[in-house]
Known about the structure:
By secondary structure, this protein is of the alpha/beta class. It folds into 3 domains: 7-178, Aconitase, domain 3 (2-Layer Sandwich), CATH 3.30.499; 182-286, no CATH class; 299-410, 2-Layer Sandwich (Aconitase, domain 3). It has 14 helices and 14 strands. The strands form 4 sheets. It has a 5-stranded parallel beta sheet, sandwiched between helices. Strands 8-7-6-9 form a 4-stranded parallel beta sheet. A 3-stranded parallel beta sheet has the order 3-2-4, with helices on one face. The longest helix has 17 residues, at 19-35. 50% of the residues are buried.
Amino acid sequence: MTVSLTPDETALLHGEGTGAQAFAMEVLTAYAGAVGAKSLIPISNAHVDGCLYHGQSSQDFVDALLAGQGRVAVPTTLNVGSMDLIHPEIMAMPPAAQSAPTRLMRTHVDLGCLPTFSCAPYQSLFRPKFGDQIAWGESNAIVFANSVIGARTNRYGDFIDLCCAIAGRAPAYGLHLDENRRGQIHFELQGCAAPLDPTDDLFVAVGLILGQVSDDLVPVIEGLPPPRDEDQLKALGAVAASSGAVGLFHAVGITPEAPDLATVFAEQPPLKRVAITEADLRAALGQLSTVPTRTPITAVCLGTPHFSLAEWRRALALLRDHTPRKGIPIYINTARETLAILQAEGALDGTEDFGLIPVVDTCTYITAIIQRMNGVVMTNSGKWAHYAPGNIGVDVAFAELADCIASAACGRVTRGTA
């Protein structure tokens, strides 16, 4: 398809800017034509997912942009990399293996990207607003921006997201456009014995079902109770995006584009209807654990996506309800910005006595941080539970946050009083 460009875009494509801008425009116009976009749209913000080291090609691409005087045109945050640059001593890899992933992360900063290195850019100062056109990589960030904030982005992969940031534009297709944001598949929570409590487990289970059933349709959830906070919607979207291809979900009466069913479906009938029962929810949660209750654990991993300040405060309160015990490490992935606030407050003082290990710039399911890989790791994250067995080869026990903290204290999987 022929892509219609403005005079300014044509000038950039033909080299009237920097070499990097011309290259980015060449990539974007080819990509736009391939996906059927008729034009490009200006963006206000980008989030780049290319900091995770996958080999020399990752570095070569960024080096080529730098050689062409590359500089991002809009505020651009960076997703996690393969290293904790603040705490390199916790990395379970030899120093020689750290140089390439470290260089890749720092080279992105040389392009003018902000060294956030967080999978949760919506928790930063650069959170977009409703209706903003943005270009984001990282699946959980994409679904959060579209669903919870009501900003607009497609699922942009490595290299394309960086080209959008350099050009300050994105292809006008998919979830950038009104007509592609209406609901298509209707999920209804029904048959429950009592009103549903807004537990973390509920939001994770619903997200897992959405991801496995929705395919490429935009899901709408009816009957979800009001969440305690946006972290529960974050968890729902993260596992929906990880277990499937969800880039946008609507929760009736909760998310900004779904005040009611008629509005979210644009007065059209859904293409498909799916009932979610209590049995479905239990079955979904059962998929996230590979071991039974009472199994000994070797670590707890929290913060996938990165822990917010609210999640930290909940976790720290739960932690201090127990006797300090260093035997089971509790790794919490979080953003630099969030960790700095906690440290300035003194909120983490003494937490090393409980085995707490803050992790920034990366995540424990994608790189070598966990010291004992021959045991069971417990998590409250549906995304972590979904990916970790395949990524790092550990058995996983999934549970609510309180159970994870209690399990670290006793050294085995415990849920409730079990």
